[in-house]
Specification:
Layout: E1 14-17, E2 20-23, E3 27-28, H1 39-51, E4 56-58, H2 67-75, E5 83-88, E6 90-92, E7 100-102, H3 106-120, E8 125-131, H4 149-161, E9 165-171, H5 175-181, E10 186-190, H6 201-210, E11 213-214, H7 234-243, H8 247-258, H9 271-279, H10 287-294
Parallel strand pairs: 3-4, 4-5, 5-8, 8-9, 9-10, 10-11
Antiparallel strand pairs: 1-2, 6-7
Helix pairs in contact: 1-2, 1-9, 3-4, 7-8
Bound molecules: NADP nicotinamide-adenine-dinucleotide phosphate.
Length: 306
C-alpha cells in the first residue's frame, strides 16, 4: 500500500511561506462557492482541514463576493494558526463563464485589500497576491485594465508599510514581471501549473533560486470543463492502480516530489476529497513511477476561458 498515514498533522511535510512553517499541502477555498446554500457544510469542511493539519488556506474576496472569506472568518479562528493568503486584481462578475472581471488599477487593488480585511474580519491579511492577467487561462487585460506592474507594486508596498498586508505574492505573472518585483520581496508565486500543464518550469526555477514558494493553482486541472485534467491522464491512472491510491493523489504527489518549493492548494467542496488530497503527501513515488510521470506531455485546453 503506497499511502501510509492519511491523518498526518503536517500533510505533505513542512514547507515555508512568508517566514512561517506551513504544511506543504494546504487548501484552496475557491470551490466553497459551490456551498453557497450549505454554510454548515462549508464550515465542516474547513474545520476538517484544520483538524488534519492544514495551516495555509488560499482565498479571495472575489470568490462569491465575500462569501468564501465569510466562511473562513466564521470557521477558522486566530488560535488555529492558519496562514490566510488572499488576492486582489479582480472583482466578481456573476453570470459569466468565469464569474470575474479584472480590477487592476492601483485604486482597485487598494479597494480589494480593504474588502478582504472586512470580509475576513482581520486587521491585516498575512499574504496578498497581486493577481495579474499576463499568463494562464482566462482573463486578459485591455483598456484601462492594462496597468504597469511597477505602479501596482508601489501600492502593494504602501499597503504593506501601512500594515494592511503582511507580505506580497504574485499570480498569473510572467518571468519578467517576477524579476521586476523581486527587489520588493515576494514570498510566493501562484500560476496555473500541474503535471499536464508545465509551461512555467523557468518560473519555478527562479522561485527556487530566490527561495520563493511556488503555489500552483489548478493543480488537478481545475473544475472547468475542457481544461486538461490530471486525473484523465493514462500514466497517472496506471500509477494510481499500481500504487493503490487515487489518480488525484498521484497528481498531487508528483507536484510535491517535483520541487521542494512547491506548496499545494488543491480545491474541493467534498470532505472525502479533502481527506484524500491531504493524504497524498504519504504517497511514495519510486524512481520508475516518477520517470514515467515526468515524461507525460503537456496537454492543451480544448476550450477558451475568455
Ligand atoms: N491565482 C489565481 O488566479 C487562481 C485561479 C484559480 C484558482 N486559484 C486557487 O487555486 C485553488 C485550486 O484550484 P481549483 O480549485 O480551481 O482547481 P483544482 O484544485 O485543480 O481542481 C479542483 C477540482 O478537482 C476536483 N477534486 C479535488 N480533489 C479531488 C479528488 N481528491 N478526487 C477527485 N476530484 C477532486 C474538485 O471537485 P470536488 O469539489 O468535487 O472535489 C474540483 O472540480 C483554488 O481553490 C483557488 O484557491 C487561484
Amino acid at each position: 500500500m503506497a499511502v501510509m498515514n492519511s491523518s498526518s498533522l503536517t500533510p505533505g511535510g513542512v514547507g515555508a511561506l512568508a517566514g512561517r512553517a506551513v504544511s506543504r499541502i494546504g487548501y484552496g477555498a475557491m470551490q466553497l462557492e459551490r456551498l453557497r446554500d450549505e454554510p454548515g457544510a462549508a464550515t465542516a469542511l474547513l474545520r476538517r482541514a484544520v483538524e488534519l493539519g492544514v495551516n495555509h488556506i488560499d482565498t479571495a474576496h472575489f470568490y462569491g463576493d465575500g462569501l468564501v472569506n465569510g466562511f473562513i472568518r466564521d470557521a477558522v479562528s486566530e488560535d488555529d494558526g492558519v496562514l490566510i493568503v488572499s488576492k486582489v486584481g479582480a472583482e466578481p462578475a456573476p453570470g459569466g463563464r468565469i464569474p470575474l472581471r479584472l480590477a487592476q488599477r492601483p485604486e482597485q487593488l487598494r479597494a480589494g485589500v480593504e474588502q478582504n480585511l472586512r470580509t475576513l474580519g482581520v486587521e491585516r491579511v498575512a499574504v496578498v497576491n497581486l493577481r495579474r492577467a499576463d499568463k494562464g487561462p482566462g482573463l486578459r487585460a485591455e483598456g484601462d485594465q492594462l496597468v504597469d506592474i511597477d505602479d501596482q507594486l508601489a501600492v502593494m508596498a504602501a499597503m504593506r508599510d501601512e500594515g494592511k498586508i503582511g507580505a506580497i505574492g504574485l499570480s498569473c505573472v510572467t518571468l519578467d514581471g517576477l524579476r521586476r518585483a523581486l527587489p520588493l520581496g515576494i514570498v510566493c508565486v501562484q500560476n496555473a501549473y500541474s503535471l499536464v500543464s508545465r509551461s512555467d518550469e523557468d518560473m519555478l526555477a527562479l522561485c527556487a533560486s530566490e527561495k520563493i514558494a511556488w503555489v500552483p493553482y489548478f493543480p488537478l486541472g481545475s473544475a472547468f470543463e475542457g481544461m486538461p485534467k490530471v486525473t484523465d491522464e493514462p500514466a497517472v491512472r496506471a500509477a494510481a492502480q499500481t500504487l493503490g491510491c487515487t489518480p488525484a493523489q498521484i497528481g498531487l504527489a508528483w507536484l510535491l516530489r517535483h520541487a521542494p518549493e512547491v506548496l499545494l492548494i488543491p480545491g474541493t467542496a467534498d470532505v472525502a476529497h479533502l481527506e484524500a488530497n491531504l493524504a497524498a503527501g504519504s504517497v511514495m513515488l519510486d524512481d520508475a513511477a516518477l520517470a514515467t510521470l515526468d515524461a507525460v506531455p503537456a496537454r492543451a485546453a480544448n476550450v477558451s476561458l475568455e
